[in-house]
Write a structure and sequence with these properties.
two-stranded antiparallel ribbon, 14 strands, twelve-stranded mixed β-sheet, single chain, TIM Barrel, globular, alpha/beta, 8 helices, 300 residues
């Protein structure tokens, strides 16, 4: 169905939001009030979608996220199916809070653990949850000791833009391979916290200069919107490439191709769990009709 409408024949990775539920209520979370929703993928539904994406679009990797994926009761079953049955590259994006037991269980089937952090120490804890910084570091150390490669993500805000280099230093000492920096988009909880927005866009230029001038202990990937002029416009692929890097499925089955459309109910396509098929539901505000530009990432 996606190929019929867009011409896309290959989608490299599925970002699978297993559930909305989370043990955090981060100030910048794009889910917002949806964190209270009960929608979720069962292990069977997740396996069906993973198989469909592999068979129809050659999808070769999956990133499991939420909400918080480690609170999903059937996470180990989903991870094992993706790795053992489909042979996919499996990544999890997590807050890393008290995940030791389950991480140890799934480590043999995991290709990367990516932990979200929003600064060093209390800066992170004030945005995410008290005690979350140390817990996240402990999880990164455990993953390293279990032989699982690690990465981190950070959403750049007015509170933490000055802590990117110190955080990179801490992460590098723990053997973390990559730090990915995201632009804050004012949806969900972030819409209620405008003070988190970086209003001086020249600060992004200064950040980029610091990144370029500093010998970093890990790879840093930067959302190109973190610049004075924003990212180059890359539109949703209604007339675009035959291959895209990612598609994201929310717990209801809504599918989104552009990161900038995530959290905005701009779905042009939906995965129907009961019938195990993807359907086209166009609207005046869907990401293809508008069209919504995609996010561009580049090395720092």
């Amino acid at each position: 169905m996606i190929g019929d409408i867009t011409g896309i024949r290959k989608i490299r990775m599925l970002y699978l939001q297993l559930l909305y539920r989370c043990n955090f209520t981060c100030l910048h979370c794009f889910h917002g009030k949806r964190l209270r929703y009960a929608d979720t993928f069962t292990a069977e539904e997740a396996a069906n979608l993973l198989t469909l994406m592999r068979d129809e679009y050659g999808t070769e990797a999956v990133t499991l996220l939420g909400g918080e994926p480690f609170v999903h009761r059937e996470l180990p079953q989903v991870v094992r199916y993706a790795k053992k049955e489909l042979g996919q590259c499996v990544e999890i994006c997590t807050n890393g809070y008290r995940i030791e037991q389950r991480l140890t269980e799934i480590a043999p089937h995991l290709d990367m653990l990516r932990v979200s952090l929003e600064g060093v120490g209390s800066t992170n804890d004030d945005i995410r949850k008290r005690g979350s910084y140390q817990s996240a570091l402990d999880s990164l150390v455990l993953a390293r000791d279990l032989g699982v490669p690690t990465g981190a993500t950070m959403t750049v805000t007015s509170r933490n833009i000055g802590e990117i280099l110190p955080l990179a230093g801490v992460l590098g000492q723990l053997g973390v391979r990559q730090l990915k920096l995201h632009h804050l988009r004012p949806v969900g909880n972030a819409a209620d916290h405008p003070e988190l927005l970086v209003t001086d866009r020249a600060a992004y230029g200064r950040l980029r200069e610091e990144l370029a001038e500093t010998r970093l202990p890990l790879e840093v990937i930067v959302d190109e919107d973190l610049s004075e002029h924003g990212s180059p416009e890359v539109c949703a692929p209604s007339r675009g490439p035959r291959e895209i890097d990612r598609i994201e499925a929310d717990p209801r089955g809504g599918l989104t191709m552009s990161c900038k459309a995530v959290g905005k109910d701009s779905h042009a396509f939906w995965y129907e769990k009961a019938s195990n098929r993807i359907v086209h539901r166009p609207s005046a505000t869907d990401e293809i009709t508008l069209p919504v530009p995609d996010v561009v990432y580049a090395h720092a």
